Amino acid sequence: MLKSPRVFTDIDTWVFDLDNTLYPHHVNLWQQVDARIGEFVSRWLKVSAEEARAIQKDYYRRYGTTMRGMMTEHGVRADDYLAYVHQIDHSPLQPNPAMGAAIAKLPGRKLILTNGSTDHAGKVLERLGIGDHFEAVFDIIAAELEPKPAPQTYQKFLGDHAVNPKRSAMFEDLARNLVVPHQLGMTTVLVVPDGSKEVVREDWELEGRDAAHVDHVTDDLTGFLQGLAKG
């Protein structure tokens, strides 16, 4: 017998990832960050762009972020890394008043949980015009530089913001980042790319929509949230 997905009946805290979740994958904003990460790795390790790319992706898979790998393996300082890789053009992001209105109608608190920095998150939320709807941003610094999907990161987030996981929902674009939230009792939503648009992602990043720890899947976050507001 298949287990029914968790529902949103008693949810009073709504937790959102940032990049490729609160804006569509096909904006490819992360592609800019991805390129900056490659440049950073190449310059720091004094290797070719091709070798840097391989190292970057290996660390991303093994450590959760390339930054964590560079810190662990090569002694990189987080501040230097974050300042460099988030120097991007945020102008491809357009205001999304419909999503803002849908978020505003959700009952309870709204929080951001991101492996990025608060500075980057602030710029993204400002461009989208939805920053006022969120109580706080829990970033990689608040996580003591341990990225999702590390279990202690979620535990610290829940503790810092007094969140009851069994009354919370988590929205993410990476299925592996929903494993621990689901184990903790959160209702999980995987945000996947619009199939009609071209996206720049690794194949493994797009996996997992059928996993047992994914309660719901959507390729239209605004529409999904609007549906919850009506429910």
UniProtKB/TrEMBL annotation:
- What CDD domains has UniProt attached to this entry? HAD_5NT
Picking any one GO molecular function of the record gives: hydrolase activity
Domain of life per record: Bacteria
Gene3D superfamilies in alphabetical order: 1.10.150.450, HAD superfamily/HAD-like
- The signal peptide, as residue positions, is none
Family annotation (Pfam families): Hydrolase (PF00702)
- UniProt keyword Iron, yes or no: no
Q: Which residues cross the membrane?
A: none
Q: Please tell me whether the keyword Magnesium is annotated for this protein.
A: no
Record keywords: Hydrolase
Per its UniProt record, what NCBIfam families does this chain match?
HAD-SF-IA-v3 (TIGR01509), Pyr-5-nucltdase (TIGR01993)
Q: Which PANTHER family match?
A: HALOACID DEHALOGENASE-LIKE HYDROLASE
Give the protein's recorded name: Putative hydrolase of the HAD superfamily
Q: Which organism is it from?
A: Bradyrhizobium erythrophlei
